[in-house]
Amino acid sequence: MKNELIVATTNPHKLREIAQISKLPVTGRTSQVRENGKTFEANAIKKVKSLKLKPGQVGLADDSGLMVNCLNGAPGVRSARFANPPTAENLCRKLLRKMANCPQRGAKFICVIALAYPDGKIRTVKGTCYGRILREMRGKNGFGYDQLFRPCGYQQTFAEMPSKMKNWLSHRGRALKKLLAYF
Ligand code: IMP
Fold first, then answer.
1. Nearest protein CA to atom 12 of ligand 1, as residue
2. Separation between Cα atoms, residue 155 and residue 50, nearest integer Å
3. Which of 62, 103, 112, 119 is deepest in the core (most CB within 10 A)?
4. Which Gene3D superfamilies does UniProt cross-reference here (predicted)?
5. Atom of ligand 1 at shortest range from CA of 88
6. Residue 121 belongs to what domain range?
7. How many domains does the chain have?
8. Does pTM top 0.90 for this prediction?
């Protein structure tokens, strides 16, 4: 595949993960859109449509977030803005506070990726990773809620895993693998 992937993100962690998983040349681009859609799909499509693509370039945008069962799916599409300022530390601490009285710790990460071709065609794929929210932060890798999320079947949080392992089983990894089948 000769195309260059233009990714609508300024998040260096996401960009690195997308490059590692796709093994394609990727370029990050700022997207100025307001992520005010009600669904991950709506936000991903809005972001990817904002990219100005040249011939040979394919646009990619992901919208992702954490949905916690006992919080009725929150923080969901608001995951990036759940705490202010939205540092990993603040996001995790606020989540721990909100879940202080939750005995049931089930959660899932969702990632929707929208891919845009220069002819305007858009395709979306979704990746889900189920897991649990721990009662304390563990690990130093990753970003966002990684220190609290332990995927089903594993003893380590995303933040304790080597990046290859997280990429293999994460919501983003799963969505990207589906997408690569289209190239
Ligand atoms: P957005 O997709 O840029 O709207 O950001 C989604 C937010 O969800 C991020 O800022 C993180 O806080 C959180 N998030 C998404 N994916 C991950 C992940 O792989 N690990 C940890 N947090 C994530």
1. 144
2. 40
3. 62
4. 3.90.950.10
5. 12
6. 4-182
7. 1
8. yes
